[in-house]
Amino acid sequence: MSKIPVIHIYFDSPLWGKSRLGAKALVHDAILAAWLKVPKKPKGTLPEISVTLTDDASIRILNKDHRGKDKPTNVLSFPDWDAIDDIPLDIGLVPVGDIIVAFETIKREAIEQNKALRSHFSHMIVHGFLHLLGYDHIEDRDAKIMEALEVKTLKTLDIDNPYL
């Protein structure tokens, strides 16, 4: 069995290709880096992830339908499991969920936050992937755990702490 997650990437908007961002490689690098930093990984199991790179119009519909918020957002995650402990052990490849990222929103946020688009995009992929594994930031304690894992992961990708 391979030791790296299986990632399916779908380009749902031409904006990603036009950007020349190199999104495919960035997605793979970010998810692998996060997977390597995740503590207590399910033994004998590897995650299978679907990543859809879309636009604001499409993510707005998903955000309204699934979260009741009628506006675009940067990233949405749709986990197949409630927590990493729920993921079955010793069965090889296991689907863990879907990540959807909106181009215009992450580009706008990168500009507003004075961050490189590549860095912000990688952060959103790491963030979305951790959600698929059950990490959350609703409660302060959980947010600190998730953010610390994001910062450690991003450091391995030579990306500065996005929370400073």
Q: What's the layout of helices and strands?
A:
Elements: E1 6-11, H1 14-19, H2 23-37, E2 45-54, H3 56-67, E3 75-79, E4 92-102, H4 103-112, H5 117-132, H6 140-156
Parallel strand pairs: 1-2, 2-4
Antiparallel strand pairs: 3-4
Helix pairs in contact: 2-5, 2-6, 4-5, 5-6
Structural write-up:
The chain has 164 residues and is α/β, with parallel strands linked by helices. The chain has 6 helices and 4 strands, in the order βααβαββααα. The protein has helices at 14-19, 23-37, 56-67, 103-112, 117-132, 140-156; strands at residues 6-11, 45-54, 75-79, 92-102. The longest helix is centred in the C-terminal third of the chain and has 17 residues, at 140-156.
Fill in the keyword field for this structure.
single chain, 164 residues, alpha/beta, Collagenase (Catalytic Domain), four-stranded mixed beta sheet, 6 helices, 4 strands, 46% helix, globular
Strand elements, count: 4
Q: What global shape is seen?
A: globular
* CATH topology title: Collagenase (Catalytic Domain)
> Separation of termini?
39 Å
Q: In what order do the strands lie side by side in the largest sheet?
A: 1-2-4-3
Major β-sheet profile: 4 strands, mixed
Instruction: Give the number of domains.
Output: 1
Oligomer: single chain
Binned, the helix content reads 40-55%
Average predicted local confidence, pLDDT: 96
Number of helices: 6
Q: Uncertain spans, ≥5 residues at pLDDT below 50?
A: none
The percent range for strand residues is 15-25%
Short description:
This protein is an alpha/beta fold and 164 residues long.
